[in-house]
Amino acid sequence: MAAGGDFPRSLAHESGPAGLTGYFAVIVMLYSAILSVQDMTKPTRAEREKILAMLPEDYMNPVQQDYFRRLIRHERQEVLDHILCPGMLPDIQSTKGDGGGESLSWVGMEQIDLPIDIAGRPISAKVNAGINLLRSPEAEKGIHMSRLYLLLDELTQGEITPALLQHVLKAFLVSHQGRSDEASIEISGELLLSRKSLNSNHSDWKAYPLTLSAELRQSFSITLKVGIPYSSTCPASAALSRHVAGLQFSKDFGNRIDSLPVAEIADWLVEKGMPATPHSQRSWAWVNIRLNQSAQSQAVIALIDYAEVALGTAVQTVVKRSDEQTFAVANGQNLMFCEDAARRLNNIFRCAPFCEAFDIRG
């Protein structure tokens, strides 16, 4: 060939160590064609016919022969498009499996990084996505992960809603038509919300870990799990603290026979009224709810508000002295074991209009 160099006819048909046969002949011919393309020189008619004449008739079937002839005759860009065409690459996933067509309950990807919008707030999310693989004598080796991966980008185009999640899950199944009938998406991250202080009218940000799970099986369902931090003052510890305070009061005033002035008692309380303090701790309430079919993405904020109202001692953000005092009063008025917190949450979520079912952990 003029651009790719002379290609002897004998090289394609000669057998033995000195020549090339079968597969290697085809490779050499392709290489010659590519050389011509790389030099941006269109092969002459004689050059094309020379390559076609060297095509080993006994090596390729008629379809392969036709493809190669069309490949050689195409223009430069069309040649490159054919050579690099994904449709010509091996598709191992679509071949039959070796496991007797056994079904798989879930195949997919985990910990995919996506920018997600939930309730109008941006989240740097980790996403798990997958489908099942049906049992069939014609079952394929695996799923096409790239199809699911590309479809997940639709979740980044707007606020997450039940309708959007259902749309993407249906697209998962369409992309594996006849091979799958179940799909799932799980989104995890932290939702940052601005929360007001108790008394000073300031606001600051608080993070709420959440997991949003959507499944499409015989029907579509969404579950939402959120962690709510709160302060819990132990009732037993508070009782013991009051007991110690009573003992101290008896020790200091037990021998007095005159009436105690209110001012003196008040002074004593300020100086010695807390010889022991009850312990408080930061606790977590994990609320997992199944959203009803009419619920929107804003249910996550409603869930957090419901929980914090029920608990009464949500962890604060910015705190001035007046806020600290108000928070101390709230803790004193809401002494509770974790069982008490669970009962409070149980009572309020029984009445939540967006909640179809729920589970409380703490």
Essential attributes:
362 residues, Urate Oxidase, 3 domains, 7-stranded antiparallel sheet, disordered N terminus, GTP_cyclohydrolase_FolE2/MptA, membrane
Description of the molecule:
The protein has a 7-stranded antiparallel sheet. 39% of the residues lie in helices and 25% in strands. The protein has helices spanning 9-13, 22-38, 45-53, 62-73, 76-84, 145-151, 162-175, 235-253, 262-272, 299-311, 321-333, 338-349, and strands at residues 104-118, 121-133, 183-196, 203-216, 220-233, 280-291, 355-361. The protein has 3 domains: 9-89, no CATH class; 104-228, Urate Oxidase (Roll), CATH 3.10.270; 229-361, Urate Oxidase. It is of the alpha+beta class and 362 residues long. The N and C termini lie far apart (78 Å). Residues 1-21 have low confidence and may be disordered. The chain crosses the membrane at residues 20-38.
Report the end-to-end length measured between terminal Cα atoms.
78 Å
Number of separate strands: 7
Shape: elongated
Mean pLDDT: 82
> What CATH architecture of the largest domain do you see?
Roll
User: From the helix content, strand content and strand pairing, which structural class follows?
Assistant: alpha+beta
Radius of gyration: 36 Å
Sequence of secondary-structure elements: HHHHHEEHHEEEHHEHHHE
- Largest sheet, if any? 7 strands, antiparallel
List the total number of helices. 12
**Strand order within the widest beta sheet:** 1-2-3-4-5-6-7
The CATH topology name of the largest domain reads Urate Oxidase
- Unreliably modeled segments: 1-21
In CATH, the homologous superfamily of the largest domain goes by the name: Urate Oxidase
Helix content: 25-40%
Indicate the CATH class of the largest domain.
Alpha Beta
Number of domains: 3
Transmembrane segments: 20-38
InterPro entries: GTP_cyclohydrolase_FolE2/MptA
Pfam families: GCHY-1
Keywords: Hydrolase, Membrane, Plasmid, Transmembrane, Transmembrane helix
